Every structure is written in C-alpha cells, then in structure tokens.
Amino acid sequence: MEQSEDAHIDWSYSNARLYDACPRALYHRQLASSGDGWTTRPVRVAGQSPGSIIGQAVHHGLAAEIEEWRRGNEPSLHGAQAAATEGLSAAFNNKRHELPGEEVDSITSTVKAHLQRFFRLLWPRFSSHRYISHEETTSFTVEDTTVWVKADLCTRAEDGKFVITDWKTRAPDVFENQTLQLRVYALWAWNEFEPEVDQIRSQLVFTSSGEVVSRSVSQSELETLVQRIKADSRVWNREFSRSNFPAQPGAEKCGQCLFLADCVPGQQATSN
C-alpha cells in the first residue's frame, strides 16, 4: 500500500520523535493517518494501555477546570475529579471485557492521586497568571512546512513571561530529548505571540511527581530548530516509499510499536 506522490508529511514534535526512534514507524503512521494534513493524531487501536487511560483522564479533568478558569471561575479538585471520572467511565466501558476489577480500581486511584497532587503542588504556580489559551491544536509555517503544536496551557506570568505548559502524567524519561519539545513550543510562541525570545518560557509539568522542567531559549537555538525542521521536511517528503524510511529494529522498541503487525523487520527483531 503506497500513497500518492503528492502525500505530504507535516512537521511536529511527535513526528520528529517517532522518526528519530525509527523512520519506518513514521512511514506507517502516515499510511494510517486520516489524510487530512495533520499526521500526528494517534492511530486508533483496539484497546488502550492503563497508562494511556490515566493520561487521558487526567488531561480531561485538568482541561475541564482550566476552561472554568477561562470563564472566570475558580478551578477545583472536585470538578477535575468529576470530569476525569466521566472520561474513565467511557474508557472502562470500551474495555469492560479486558480490565480486571483490581486494575480498574488501581487506575481510578492513580488518576485521583495525580489530580490531588496537581491542585496541592502545581496549581499555585498558575493561579496568579493571566489565561491565554489551552488544549488548542494549531499550526504555523516554517518556510513551506506546516508545523503543528498543541499546548496544554498558555499563560502570561506576573513577570511578563509568556509561559507554555505541557502536562505529563508519566514519570520523567531520562532518555527523552525534552529540550526539543520545549524548543518547539518556544518557536511557536516566538512566531505567534511573543517577539522577545527572552520573554518565553516553556515547561513540562509532571503530575506523577510534581516536578517541573522549565526552560528558556535563545534566538540561536530557535534558528537551529528552524534549520532542523526544514531538513526533516526535505527528507520526509523527498519520496514517500518504504526505502526512504528505513527500519531501525530493536526487540524492546519494536515490541511496543503500534505498527509491528505491518513491519517485517520489527517482527524479526521481536522473534529472535
């Protein structure tokens, strides 16, 4: 199965991260995408992992209360837990034949703990900020390349900084290039909101621990990112074929890949 020659892969952090891990995985993601121009939407698979259910429920709960804040109301733990419970109910109904009762209880208590931790340790950091936007999927262009971002929350801090925040429900990954994601957010803010680079701060907030990874960037760092985006786009869109997206198999990596069923090198790596 091949797409037409005019198939185009837009740039996003998730696409770049996937390509860095295995170019062939990005190829399969593009094949599975809806073809509407944004190739970073998650592929629909049968069932979700417990971690995915937890992440979506926490995000749902926080988004609901940030919306209350946008409307001028005070966000509350109770409201966040109610919204998260609604999301969990939908997930459990979809997986009612797959999750044992003790796992349902574990997921539910974990979500509650994340939200309690957020309102106890993290929300005080934002309560004095001015709301800008939240959970908004948007794009900007780098030369002729469309770049997609979705920030969980954008605010203006009391010191005038434009702050972009991304919630993370998992523990910090020491092997993940967090700098790239933070720079992508900063590049978007620089293009769309804040011309003064030193007034931009992007951060990852880990609801599993209360840890905040925050970073300011320089103009030279953003210019380097622009060059990377251009280079990636040239490679990704040179030719949409398997040969242009070589597999980089590894047993552990391939065992967790959503596209293993369609990837012979991955199947070989996991069967050895």
Describe this structure in words.
48% of the residues lie in helices and 16% in strands. With 272 residues, it is an alpha/beta fold. The protein folds into three domains: 11-44 and 241-271, no CATH class; 50-126, no CATH class; 130-229, Trna Endonuclease, Chain: A, domain 1 (3-Layer(aba) Sandwich). Strand 7 (200-206) and strand 8 form a beta hairpin. The chain is flat.
Instruction: Please count the beta strands (DSSP E, at least 2 residues each).
Output: 8
Q: What structural class results from the helix and strand content?
A: alpha/beta
Rg calc: 20 Å
Rounded mean pLDDT is 88
Please report the distance between the alpha carbons of the first and last residues. Answer: 27 Å
Helical fraction: 40-55%
The DSSP helix count reads: 9
Q: Which blocks of ≥5 consecutive residues have pLDDT under 50? A: 1-5, 34-46
From the 3D structure, determine the CATH topology of the largest domain. Trna Endonuclease, Chain: A, domain 1
User: Total domains, how many?
Assistant: 3
Supply the CATH class of the largest domain.
Alpha Beta
Please give the order of strands in the largest beta sheet.
2-5-6-7-8
Tell me the strand percentage band: 15-25%
- Oligomerization category of the chains in this entry: single chain
Give me the strand/helix succession: EHHHHHEEEEEHEEHHH
User: What composes the largest sheet?
Assistant: 5 strands, mixed
Categorize the overall geometry: flat
Instruction: Tell me which CATH architecture of the largest domain applies here.
Output: 3-Layer(aba) Sandwich
